[in-house]
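Thread: Newbie trying to understand structure tokens

Hi all, I'm a second-year student working on a class project, and my supervisor (Dr. K.) asked me to get a predicted structure for one chain before our next meeting. I've only ever worked with sequences, so writing a 3D structure as a token string is new to me. If someone could post the tokens and maybe explain what I'm looking at, I'd be very grateful. Here's the chain:
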Amino acid sequence: MSRSNYTFTSESVSEGHPDKLCDRVSDAILDAFLAEEPEARVACETFATTNRVVVGGEVGLSTKDKTGAMMERIDAIVRDCVRDIGYEQKKFHWEKIKVQNYLHEQSAHIAAGVDRDGAGDQGIMFGYATRETAEFMPAPIQYSHAILRRLAEVRKSGAEPTLGPDAKSQLSLRYVDGKPVEVTSIVLSTQHTSKKQTSAMIREIVEPYIREILPEGWITEATEWHVNPTGIFVIGGPDGDAGLTGRKIIVDTYGGAAPHGGGAFSGKDPTKVDRSAAYAARYLAKNVVAAGLADRCCLQVSYAIGVAKPLSIYVDTYGTGKVEAHQIEKAVEACMDLTPRGIRTHLGLNRPIYARTSAYGHFGRAPEADGGFSWERTDLTEALAAAV
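---
Reply by user tm_fold:
Sure, no problem. This is what the structure looks like when written as tokens:
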């Protein structure tokens, strides 16, 4: 039986965090290839450290000429990402960094399986949804993201010019009867521009924005605050700590409130089920909850490389289901083609919509007019309800 009274914690990291910067670069390169050809193949990894960004992996366009022309754009794509995030530090500046490109053609053996509409790899993927927020997301991760997104907005607008790009947030929420009611602790570490700024001064800057984001009444006199608890945080980003694509998979998903299959998202085109099937699983779990079939839903799918049909579909509603889990499993299979191509078609994934996913979560975002975050739609509720 699920617990109803407890405290749960999730964290988020900003777009300027070294790992998130790498996710952004990998996804920006993916978007550039997909803008050239919707069927482009990309598996791009990025590494960043002091004054250096390294990209590598497998890519593929229909001709070598197109691939060669795209290779010439990689340097500019990397620098544009770093500039947009806001890095103009002495040892990590968008103009001065050295960019090394080790991208090469996709393996013919992998391509052969994918070209038959099979999955690009084996693996397990999970989707999750809950009624505890309007976005059907766990509250700790949703609000941790929202805090950092708001601080990035005021930094970039010039309203808070002393804040830097690198930041982390963490919220511990107390639940009563399964619902979040109070913030027991807030942890916020943000890069800043002056060594003279103390932790107290940084708290004075960020506290109004944190209170603006969190629901009224959640912050109490008992709430513990830890703002820049180590003191000075001037050296940040890849100069302070190396970054790598795919190291923030829990931040990217549900903040630890649900299982994770282990596969990262950024830099992978939608033939890779690590990404596309995880999006489909979220889409289905969200629609199950939105349809009123359960208050919480976790959905797992599994695949074999080169095989189109999923090997299994599993649903757990944690005792909140209005119908049996096996009925939801059958309804899911009836309502959506979960082959890799079926997922890409249903959700419109062969589009340059991925750089925007690289920070502040892949889930719990609003669907966008150009197809971004299509997996957040709730347009399958009637079909699922009818199917059960």
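A couple of things are worth pointing out once you decode it. The two ends are 24 Å apart (CA to CA). The mean pLDDT is 95. Feel free to ask follow-ups in this thread.
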